Amino acid sequence: MKMYRFRLYPSKRQEKQMNTHLWRAKNLWNDLLEHSKNIYGNFDKFPTKSTLAAMTKDSGLYSQVAQDIGFRVEKGIWRYVKLRKAGDKKAGFPRFKSIDRIKSLSYPQAGFSLGRKLKVTPFGEIAIVQHRQIQGTVKTLSLKKDSSGKWFACFAVEETPIIRAPNGKPQVGIDFGLKTLATLSDGTIIKNPRHLKKHAENLAWLQRCLSKKKKGSKNRGKAKREVAIAYEKVANSRADFLHKTTTTLVNSYSLIALEKLASQEMAEQNFGRSINDAGWGMFANMLAYKAESAGC
Q1: Strand partners, 176
Q2: Among 178, 205, 201, 204, which Cα is nearest to 191's?
Q3: Which secondary-structure segment (H or E) carries 173?
Q4: Please, what sign has the CA dihedral across residues 22, 24, 29, 30?
Q5: Model's pTM, two decimal places?
Q6: Residues β-bridged to residue 119
Q7: Rounded Cα gap, residues 165 and 169, in angstroms
Q8: What are the tens digits of pLDDT across the range 38-83?
Q9: What does the alpha-carbon distance between residue 200 and residue 267 come to, in Å, rounded to a whole number?
Q10: Which of 185, 281, 296, 189 is nearest to 238 (CA)?
Q11: Most exposed residue of 19, 23, 201, 213, measured as fewest CB within 10 angstroms of its CB?
C-alpha cells in the first residue's frame, strides 16, 4: 500500500460539520469501550462483534466511519487479550479518548469519490489540492485534522507492480548515523540537518509560554496552537529534505540496500530524540516506496 496525502480546504460549514463528526467519533469510541469494560467486569467476557456493530448504528456518523471505529475498538480489545494470555503483564486495555486524541474519520470501503473536488458523505464536495496523480486503486480514505487545525485527505492506494529493465546505474548500500544522516558504500556522506535542534530554543520558549496559561482558557488554546504550528514547521522541513534526498538517491542508483535499523535498541540507550530528529524511519519508508516505483 502507498499513501497519498493532499491538503483539504473545507468551507466553514463543512469544517464545523467535520469537527462535529470528530466529537461523535470520540463519543462512540468511549461508549463502545465503556460497554466492553462493563460486560467484562460483570461477566468475565467481552461483547460479541454483532453487539458492538449494533451500537454503531445510532452514532450519527456515516455507517462506514462508525463501523471502522467499532472494528478498531474490537481489534484493540483482542490485542490486549492476546498479549495478556502470552504473559505480557504490561499490556494495557485500550484507553478512553479525549477530543485531542481523535483526529481522523476513516472510510474503509465507500462514501467518497475523487474528481476536481473530493466528494465525501455527508460533507459534500470539499476543495482539495491534488499535487500529484494517484497511481493505482484507492482502497481507503481518511480525513485527518492535524494539531494546527489543517485538514488532509489521506488515501491508501494499492499499486500495480512495475517491472523495469536494468538501467545500468551503480548499486549502493546505506548505513545510518546520528552525526551524519547516512553514509553510502561509495563514500558519499549525507549530512544530518538536525531540524529539531535548530528550533529547540524557540520550541522551549513556546512550551514555557503554554505552561503559564490557565487550563481551559482561550489564551491557552492559542498558545497550544502556536506550539503545534512550530512543530509542524520542523516536521515539514524534515520531510522536504528527506523527499529531495531520497529522490536524488533513486535517480542515481539501480539498487539500494539499507542496513537493518536498530532504532529500538538505540532509543533505549537515550538516542531516541536524535533518531527522531534525523528521521531514520521516514527516510527508509520514503526510499522504499520511491525505489519500488523506480524499479530499484
Answers
A1: 182
A2: 178
A3: strand 171-176
A4: positive
A5: 0.73
A6: 113, 125
A7: 11
A8: 887 777 778 888 888 888 988 999 999 999 999 999 999 888 888 8
A9: 19
A10: 281
A11: 201
